[in-house]
TrEMBL record:
Interacts (Ig-like 1 domain) with NRXN2 (via Laminin G-like 1 domain) in a trans-interaction manner. SMART domains: IG (SM00409). Residues 34-113, 341-426 form the Ig-like domain. Residues 1-19 form the signal peptide. It comes from Callorhinchus milii. InterPro entries: Ig-like_dom, Ig-like_dom_sf, Ig-like_fold, Ig_sub, Nectin/Nectin-like. This is Immunoglobulin superfamily member 21. It is a lipid-anchor; GPI-anchor. It is found in: Postsynaptic cell membrane. One of its GO terms (biological process) is homophilic cell adhesion via plasma membrane adhesion molecules.
């Protein structure tokens, strides 16, 4: 017998004398949150089974949470092993079923098996196997917003515009891309902290080149003028800082209507066409933000030089592909300038000393991005002395009689255009306020 044969015989005798135990867990494909999954642990031994313990491993192996235990000593259905010198191989399988997988279940699981050596009851052998459970979660939400809005703009200066697509609740990170009017956008990738891009490269979303954009309205730069918006202060003297109230026999300040909303508005989009390229370049960048629940929030952005003449009423969509989704998710917005603001004044019948609220209730169209609102008084300052007021709501505290007939202008604007709408304030005499006291409070109320 040569030395190799002697070595193999020695190993065989040692194996028989010491017994053996092998453990392995069947690999499993990625699963989606909410699905059921079964983990299978197979082990083979010639000893007597003592226990099976399953662990969920967290914190990089620092913490092991026990999720299942099988104790053979207290079980009536364990297998009895005949004690003899001959070798007997027994194959076992332990399964753990998770009925509804959660994101927190993502990570390694371990199956630990302990046996008594068949040749020595006091000798305990232990081995384990490990498997990584990859849990996927489809995105929970998707939305498209405009960056840095609402914000003022200059219709005579070219400016960049950024759309942001926010995708939350997904694992792993989804693939995000943009379309314009149903056409996949060709984009330039920009390097972004936390993102996966390279500057100057063409993105995967750029498989097709968009067609040259055609103006939706070739007469958009034509400014429609309304007589109601001419400078009537100098032309006819209708609106002054302190219009004189007109007294009538019944003691009230009369008018043809309580509030006069001039229906004709000016939609102003005087944008020089020559500064805008006909085929804009879209710069794409994105970030991935890990969330504490194990999911990832993705923020994808496209930036381009906005052309209000071409981009007004353009449909942009953000679409998401993810291995946990059977079909893509999408969110879409239509870029639109404000049109036809609806103005509401309360109370509908204003008396001297009332607090008046003038508010923009909505528009004739869906406006995107969010517009800015600026209130001014035609021919004078606001009641509190300011030149203008920002916001949907304009509040006039304790209006004096001198404001009767005054006109208020609401300018609504976003990067695609602006709209001016006017309403007239008609004030009636308050029978509860003596005329002398009213005049005194009115003089002190306007600055």
């Amino acid at each position: 017998m040569n030395w190799k044969e002697s070595h193999l015989l020695l190993l065989t005798l040692l194996d028989v004398a010491l017994g053996y135990l092998t453990v392995n867990i069947e690999p499993i494909s990625p699963v989606v949150v909410g699905e059921a999954v079964t983990l299978k642990c197979n082990f083979k031994t010639d000893g007597r089974l003592r226990e099976i313990v399953w662990y969920k491993v967290t914190e990089g192996g620092a913490i092991k949470q026990k999720i299942f235990t099988y104790d053979a000593l207290f079980s009536t259905n364990y297998t009895h092993i005949e004690e003899s010198l001959r070798r007997e191989d027994l194959v076992y399988q332990s399964t753990v079923r998770i009925p509804e997988v959660r994101i927190l279940d993502n990570g390694p699981f371990e199956c630990h098996v302990g046996i008594y050596d068949r040749t020595n009851r006091k000798k305990f052998l232990e081995a384990y196997g490990q498997v990584f459970l990859n849990v996927m979660a489809p995105p929970a939400s998707i939305s498209v917003i405009a960056a840095d809005t609402p914000a003022a703009f200059s219709r005579y200066q070219a400016q960049n515009f950024t759309l942001v697509c926010i995708v939350s609740g997904g694992k792993p990170a989804p693939t995000v891309y943009f379309k314009r009017d149903g056409e996949l956008l060709e984009v330039q990738l920009a390097l972004e902290t936390g993102g996966r891009g390279s500057p100057g490269g063409r993105g995967a979303a750029g498989a097709r080149r968009p067609q040259n954009l055609i103006s939706r309205d070739l007469d958009d730069t034509k400014l429609q003028k309304s007589l109601s918006l001419l400078d009537l202060d100098s032309a006819r003297g209708f609106f002054t800082d302190r219009p004189s109230p007109t007294h009538f026999p019944d003691g009230e300040f009369q008018a043809t209507s309580q509030t006069e909303a001039i229906p004709e508005t000016v939609i102003s989009r005087e944008f020089p066409r020559w500064i805008y390229p006909s085929d804009p370049e879209y710069v794409f960048r994105h970030t991935q933000i890990p969330v504490s629940d194990g999911t990832i929030e993705v923020r994808a952005m496209i930036t381009w030089m906005l052309n209000p003449d071409l981009d007004n009423n353009a449909l942009f969509s953000c679409e998401v592909k993810h291995p946990a989704l059977t079909m893509s998710m999408q969110s879409e917005v239509i870029l639109a300038a404000p049109k036809g603001p609806r103005i509401d004044m309360s109370p509908t019948r204003v008396h001297v000393g009332d607090t008046v609220r003038i508010i923009v209730q909505g528009f004739q169209n869906e406006v995107f991005p969010e517009p800015l609102f600026t209130w001014t008084r035609v021919g004078g300052r606001l009641l509190d002395g300011r030149q203008d007021h920002d916001g949907k709501l304009l509040t006039l505290e304790r209006v004096p009689a001198e404001l009767n007939g005054s006109m208020y202008r609401c300018t609504t604007q976003n990067p695609l255009g602006s709209t001016d709408t006017h309403t007239r304030l008609i004030i009636f005499e308050n029978p509860n306020v003596p005329q002398g006291r009213n005049q005194k409070s009115g003089e002190s109320g306007v600055r």
